[in-house]
Amino acid sequence: MTDADLLARHKAVLPSWLALYYDEPIEIVHAQDRRVIDSTGRSYLDFFAGILTNSMGYDVSAISDAVRKQLDTGILHTSTLYLIRSQVELAERIAKLSGIPDAKVFFTNSGTEANDTALMLATQYRRSNQVLAMRNSYHGRSFATVGITGNRGWSASSLSPVKVSYVHGGYRYRSPFRALSDTEYIDACVADLVDVLETGTSGDVACMIAEPIQGVGGFSSPPDGLFKAMKEVLDQYGILFISDEVQTGWGRTGEHYWGIQAHDVVPDAMTFAKGLGNGLAIGGLVARGDLVDCLTANSISTFGGNPVAMAGAAAVLDHIADHDLQANALARGNELLSGLRASGHPLIGDVRGKGLMIGVELVRPGGLEPDPGAAARMMEETKARGLLIGKGGLHGNVLRIAPPMTLTADEAAEGLGIITDSLAAIS
User: Fold this and answer.
1) Domain spanning 3-60+324-426: which superfamily?
2) Residue 270: alpha-carbon gap to chain centroid
3) How confident is the model at residue 254 (pLDDT cuts 50, 70, 90)?
4) Which of 158, 170, 178, 329 has the most CB within a 10 Å radius?
């Protein structure tokens, strides 16, 4: 059966809105380290890691061994109705790593579910359905998380269980404040936050949720310190601050273990997923104990915190620490950022990011007009040269570069060369 045959079957039984990359989508059938192989035997260097999920790469023996050891017990699942030792142990580690005082952890199966849980807790704790979110944000595909997603391309419905107000700050490149200095930009965004609170809400807002670096939004981020300044305002109103670390957590930004640490602030809650499982379905929330405990009804998570995911996640945390992958993410990321910025290509309007979260915004030469067509062509050209990258941004014109955190210097140089050659080809 060819990929074309599989694509036809895919279209027949799966939703039309289930996005696929490339004019001729590929099936990945084998992988090792940072390389994947499709059904035709073609090899690719992976610079998107399953949307930042395969954070350690592929076929990592320490992680596979931990999963196999759990499988050998015969127990894939028991449910949270029973004690799960590995769940308790992983929760203890994450609570300590979070820096949140008296933290507690709740495990889910995805980032969407983690953010949905955060909204449920915050609105219950504050007895309010009002939420602040960032423009150009993305927080998931559930009913509530779509309702707080500030990107039209991913917001399928105006209906929502929460009332959301959007504030400036997360996407600087096209912001009306883009020409300001860092300090002036922060002041302008904080003033906007105050104005939104005073004019667009009744004051008793439940929470503000923000990605330290906007993922789907094109790896955009504000100047360091914005969220500290915003939290000072939120604290005056008693509003909770939730940091969405689904893409920025576990050292990927290089400079810090959590993305929000760049802002020198401790949030009331953080959500996580993706890279913690290295491909295993896992998500969760770590937050102040009183916030986590505020529910007055019974609840469980049938699959959240299951023994297999817990075993794999614990091995991932060990692998990050044992191989100093946070430092590696910083070093390899700086190499890629420097190379991309040095190219001076007229299609490149902005190169941004931290560590191994890099966005390259493509524009029509000589201005700021987005060029989504160039981004689409780049996807095909890099694929043809053996490199997989991602695409995003409000206008679909941003290349998303996020290799596994185990990326080597040689692989970084190889990928950079392919991107440079591909830019030349589409010119």
Assistant:
1) Aspartate Aminotransferase, domain 1 (3.90.1150.10)
2) 12
3) very high
4) 329
